[in-house]
Design brief:
Layout lengths: L1 H22 L12 E7 L25 E9 L2 E8 L4 E7 L2 E4 L10 E4 L25 E7 L2 E7 L3 E5 L6 E6 L5 E4 L12 H30 L3
Antiparallel strand pairs: 1-2, 1-11, 2-3, 3-4, 4-5, 5-6, 7-8, 8-9, 9-10, 10-11
Length: about 230
């Protein structure tokens, strides 16, 4: 009888532990549809009513630095465009296409670009695996369970420097912040995005890259044919 009681108690404890672990299973941020748009909106003052562990930290912009007010992201036809609206009224663009990231710099002339390979880190993230590279730090180890943001309950991820809240149904990001910077929120327009038309400034930069890629693939095909022709 004692053995049976011990077995049942151990089984009950295991079930309770498993239930607790299942309750803390971290959700994953899903990919957006192939054609989609969303908007990041940055706050410009200290946030009010944020019920989190970092609520006591001030949210302020660095003095003397140019800050973003809004970023509109659109993906379609295998490309991605980000339009950044800055505090000085300037609008710049970043395009992701064919493994490249082409960026305008808000303090540079409008006809100058930085061209980098995607995945190089920093300002050239790889968006082929995630639509939200600014949330690359979000992992299961940073999941804190359900938390409150402005009076509502969301999935909450947090590190010593960053926080993000995910919608409990769609699992899309609702709001986030990094360090002492301002909170930014996400909006998802109901209207689907249309086809993207890359401006000539950016499209012209793709031409030499595409030519190099074509030459590379042609060379590889020729080498493979030579291998096949060699007598054995």
């Amino acid at each position: 009888m004692n053995r049976l009681f011990g077995f049942l108690a151990a089984l009950a404890a295991t079930s309770i532990l498993a239930a607790g672990q299942n309750a803390m299973i971290a959700p994953e941020i899903p990919r957006m549809p192939e054609s989609a748009s969303w908007i990041l909106i940055y706050e410009v003052r200290k946030s009010v009513g944020v019920e989190t562990g970092l609520a006591d930290k001030p949210t302020a912009e660095s003095e003397g630095e140019l800050s973003k007010r809004r970023v509109v992201v659109t993906k379609s036809d295998g490309m991605r465009r980000e339009q950044s609206f800055w505090e000085n009224g300037k609008v710049t663009e970043t395009w992701y296409a064919k493994g490249l990231v082409m960026q305008q710099i808000p303090t540079w002339p409008d006809d100058q670009l930085i061209v980098q390979r995607a995945g190089g880190g920093g300002s050239a993230p790889d968006v082929s695996q995630s639509d939200f590279p600014e949330l690359a730090w979000v992992t299961a180890t940073n999941y804190k369970g359900l938390g409150h943001f402005k009076g509502r309950e969301f999935h909450h991820f947090q590190t010593a420097e960053s926080e993000v809240w995910l919608d409990p149904e769609s699992l899309r990001p609702v709001a986030a912040r990094e360090g002492l910077g301002p909170i930014w929120t996400y909006e998802y327009p109901a209207v689907a995005s249309g086809p993207l038309q890359m401006p000539k400034l950016f499209a012209d930069r793709l031409v030499p890259f595409e030519k190099r890629q074509a030459r590379y693939h042609e060379t590889m095909r020729e080498l493979e044919l030579q291998k096949q022709r060699k007598p054995r």
